[in-house]
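Known limitations

Files may contain more than one protein. Parsers should not assume a single record per file. Below, a two-record file is shown to illustrate correct handling: read the sequence, read the C-alpha cell line, then continue until end of file.
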Amino acid sequence: MLPALMNSTNIHLPGSAEAPAPLATFDFSRRGTLHGMAHLGGAKEEIWFAPGPAEAVTLAPFEGAQTPDYLFLATSEPCSDGGTLRKLSKVLYQALLGHAMTHGYTQPVRFWNNIPDINRGAGDQEHYRQFCWGRAEAFDGWPGPMPAASGTGSQDGLLYIAMLAASPRIQVRHHENPRQVSAFKYPKEYGPRSPSFARATHLSSGNQELYLLSGTASIVEHRTLHEGRLDAQLRETRKNIRALRDIYPQLVPGGMRCYLRYPAQLADCQAGLHAYFEDMPDMVLLQSDLCRTDLLVEIEGVCERPLY
C-alpha cells in the first residue's frame, strides 16, 4: 500500500509572490463532496493553493473561490437519464466557459467531471456518451485548445462538474500523449461526439511550474488494452504517464488520484501501485466506475518543480 504522507495533499498553483491561499478543497472523507465516490485509502482531502488573497465567489449555479490569477467553480445537479444529462452538460459547460471569460480567467486549465451511473445505457445512450455529446456542443466554436480533464462515475444520482481557470498572466500549454490518439479525435465507435479534453496541461509563472495529468488509463492509440487484467492495466497506465512526464522531465509527481472500479481488487491494486508507482507516494484511492466498461483503473494527478 502507498499511504499518503499526511491526511491532506497540498497542491500549489504557480503565480505571483503573494502568500498562498486555499482556493479549492476536495474532501474525500465525505462521499458526495464534489465527487460522489467512496474513499478507499490515502489522504482524506486535497487542497489546491494559489497566490492570494482568495475570496469566495458565487456565480449561479456554481460556487467556489477566486484569486487574482485563478478561478475555481463547482456544482452538483441531479440527473437520472441520458437525454437530460446531455442537455445539462451543455448548459453547465456553456455557463462555466462564459463565467471564466466574463471575469477575465480566459484560460480553462482543468475540469473534473463525475457522471451519475456513467456506464448506464446501451450504445450511444450510455450516460458517458451523452455527457460527452453535451460537453462537445458547449465547446463548439470555442477558440482555444481543450484543457486537461477527467470523467469518472458518481454513485448518488448527481452530476458533479468543477473547473479551474487561469488569467492571461499564467502561461498555459496543453499536451497530447504520443502513445494515444487525441481524445477529441476518437473515431465514431466511441460515441456521436468525441471527449473534449487534452491529455495534460502545463502551467508556469516565473520559475514555478505545475503539470496537470488528465485521467490516464490502459489505452494505446484509441483502444483499451488488457481487458480484465488489473496488473497489466496498471503497467500500461504507467507507460502512458511516463510518456507524458517525458515532456517535462524536470518535474516530479505530487498529489495523485487512483480510481478503482471494483473495491474487491483493492489489495491487488495497492500491490500494483507499489510495484509500478513507487515514485508517486501521495496516492489517493477512490472507488469509481470509469468511462469505459473494460477499464478497471485510472490515474490522474500533478507533477511539479521540486523545492530543493
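...continuing to the second record:
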Amino acid sequence: MKISSNYRLRTIAGETIVVNQGVGEKNLTRIISLNASARMMWEELADKAFTLDDAAHLLEETYGIDAAQARKDASAWVEALKKCGIIGE
C-alpha cells in the first residue's frame, strides 16, 4: 500500500492536518488531524510502498511496544487513512 502523493501534512495552530493538494475538494468541512505517532508514521512511510507489518514494526521500534499492540495500532492507522481515501494499494 502507499500514501497518495496528492496529500501533504501541514501544521496549523499547532495541529498536524492532512491537506489534499491534488483534485480540488468541494467539501472543505472535512479536516483530518494526526496525533504525534500518526504523524511520525506518515513521515516515515509517505514516499514508499509499505505493508501493515512495516507500519507495525515502526511502532515497535519507536515506542518499544509489543508486537500485538503495534499491529493493532498500525491497523487502526491504516484503516482510518484508507477510509479517507488517502492510502491505496
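Parsers that stop after the first record will miss the second one. For reference, the second record is described as follows. The chain has one domain: 2-84.
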